[in-house]
Amino acid sequence: MQELKSYLSDRWQAGAGDGAALHDPASGEAIAHTSTEGLDLGAALTHARESGGPALRSMTFAERGALLLGISKAVHGFRDELLDVSVRNTGTTRKDAKFDVDGATATLAAYAKLGEELGDRRYLVDGDGAAIGRSPRFWGTHVKVPVRGVAVHINAFNFPAWGWAEKMACAFLAGVPVLTKPATGTSLPSFRIAQICVDSGLLPNGAWSFLCGGVGDLLNHLSSQDVIAFTGSAATAARIRAHENVVRRSVRVNIEADSLNAVVVGPDVDPDGETWDLFLRELAREICQKSGQKCTATRRVFLPESLMDAVVEQIGDRLADYPAGRPSEDGVRMGTLSTPSQVPDVVEGMRRLSEVCDVVHGNLPHGEGPDAAVIKPVIFLCRDPEGTPLVHELEVFGPCVTLMPYSGDPTEAARLVAMGDGGLVATVYSDDLQFTGDILLELAPWHGRVLLGSRRIVEHSMGPGMVLPDYVHGGPGRAGGGRELGGIRGLDLYLQTCAVQGARPVIQRVLGTPSTP
Ligand code: NAP
Predict the structure, then answer these.
(1) What is the atom index within ligand 1 of the atom nearest the CA of 185?
(2) Helices first, then strands: H and E counts in the chain
(3) With 0-12 CB in 10 A as exposed, 13-18 as middle and 19+ as buried, what is 455?
(4) Which atom of ligand 1 is nearest to the CA of 294?
(5) Beta-strand relationship, 6-8 and 11-13
(6) How many CB atoms lie within 10 A of CB 106?
């Protein structure tokens, strides 16, 4: 069985003992093991701060961008192998593995381009500043400089490639060294990426560390200049936020957690029209892509009562386009759950939903037998969304969705969506501008992103599940309150914003801005 190692202090290191096993979820076979026991994580962080930080800070944005482009190309060079590894360790189909792996290289390339555009600078100045008081000579502005610590990236199991890249791109471009800790169960693709990056010879000493396995005592060694960017469950997020050292040192924490992403279909949508077709196509994809194990997957759908029968009748045909099975089998378009340990969670989650909803498509899974990790889509119908809190609170991380009626009033729909207490993305399907405008401003405070699906974008829409590097990812409340990506906004997490006040010519001289009037 393959032994995975960590890359710390610029050396590959193995922890003591066998540690945790990684599985092929389709067969249940153990394929690798990894341990972090006994590794000196304090020394690794010190090395990253003392070597990686200065190396990245000495580079301009353009140089850091070139580094990201080099990494993107190096990883892309092993695309086929990474897709195979991903299929093996995460049970995903090859097509869904591309979503992860190509998403990683594309995000790195997008931030490489941003670095090129930012050019020869090493830090950012926020705006032109303004005169303070009466004299035009007494000036104030803000400078954004890289923190002097390490960006500690703790990722979820579902995107072992993209999760690594979307975080690393922002931290590296900001000028901050990174320690990546993937979820142990699906760390094989991340491990292979780490090997590729190290072997590329592109990484400055100390710029990247890779912790493969349990988090150990990592958080005990964090300093006030370090940053945690976490993606995973709300329960783990709460433990990190409350960690004694994290609290004591005021370590900056960004959380991307659960989300019961919602779709609202407007009363104007005609079941024979293009917008309806777009809605059904995207709904089927959101249920089935990566077996519903996407943080942005649709979980709740609000429809006018008059459209409910049509969706129940028609969604089955769309779902038939996604035969479920082991990814190695011919014709399979929806693979297994990513890890064997997810199976009981999804089975139990669907069972709990069935206690308060009708099952209107599919059958509840049992989670037993040789194909236990193959879960087929299930559609629930909740007739009383207002009086059923569970459907707004329980995120079942698998291929299922709950349909719910509303009156057609945008304010009512937005209120029901907000019962999810904050989400990553909400989608509105409508061609009525009044309805769209009314609901958008009600949904926006509760979400990091709103997708407006209409007949005007039928040929262009990538669906709500697609996270793009130029647009913010993250949401308030249940979604964790974090914010990642969003082009240059993604760098903010790794930059200290410092107000600078003084004589305007002095500020202009030392920061190169603003221009003298
Ligand atoms: P998880 O169990 O919370 O694990 C997430 C990560 O935290 C893993 O790397 C895990 O390491 C690590 N971890 C576990 N205990 C820790 C501790 N005490 N201190 C620090 N780190 C710790 O979540 P998951 O099951 O992998 O992911 C599923 C959840 O992630 C879902 O709820 C989903 O909604 C959410 N998610 C959100 C987003 C988003 O962008 N908002 C994206 C993807 C997934 P080990 O694997 O070694 O235990």
Answers:
(1) 46
(2) 16, 22
(3) middle
(4) 43
(5) antiparallel
(6) 17
> Judging by beta carbons within 10 Å of its beta carbon (0-12, 13-18, 19+), is residue 178 exposed, middle or buried?
buried
pLDDT at 127: 83
Predicted model pTM: 0.95
As given in the structure block, the two tokens for residue 394 are 């329980």
**How many residues are recorded in the chain?**
517
- Tracing tokens 């690594």 back to the chain, one arrives at 164
Query: What is the 8-class DSSP label of residue 332?
Result: -
Q: Determine what percent of the chain falls in helix, strand and coil, rounding each to the nearest 5.
A: 40, 20, 35
What is the Cα–Cα distance from 6 to 20, expressed in whole angstroms? 13
| 95 within ligand 1 shell (Cβ under 6 A) | no
Closest residue (by CA) to atom 39 of ligand 1?
256
Residue 204 is classified by DSSP as P
Identify which has the larger pLDDT, 136 or 203: 203
Ligand 1 centre from 346 Cα, in Å? 16
For residue 513, is pLDDT > 70? no
User: CA–CA separation, 447 vs 450, rounded Å?
Assistant: 7
Integer CA distances (angstroms), 364 to 283, 348, 361, 378, in order:
19, 10, 10, 7
Contacts with 504 (C-beta within 8 Å, 6 or more apart), sequence order: 131, 136, 137, 138, 139, 514, 516
Question: Scanning the structure block, which residue is given the tokens 């999804």?
Answer: 346
386 is catalytic: no
The residue whose C-alpha atom lies closest to atom 16 belonging to ligand 1 is 236
Q: Are 33 and 56 in contact (CB under 8 A)?
A: no
Residue 245 Cβ contacting ligand 1 at under 6 Å: no
256 among known catalytic residues: yes
pLDDT-above-70 percentage for the chain:
99
465-479 pLDDT per residue, tens: 999 999 999 999 999
The overall average pLDDT reported for the chain is: 96
Sheet holding 261-265, edge to edge: 358-361, 378-381, 400-406, 298-304, 261-265, 423-429, 447-453
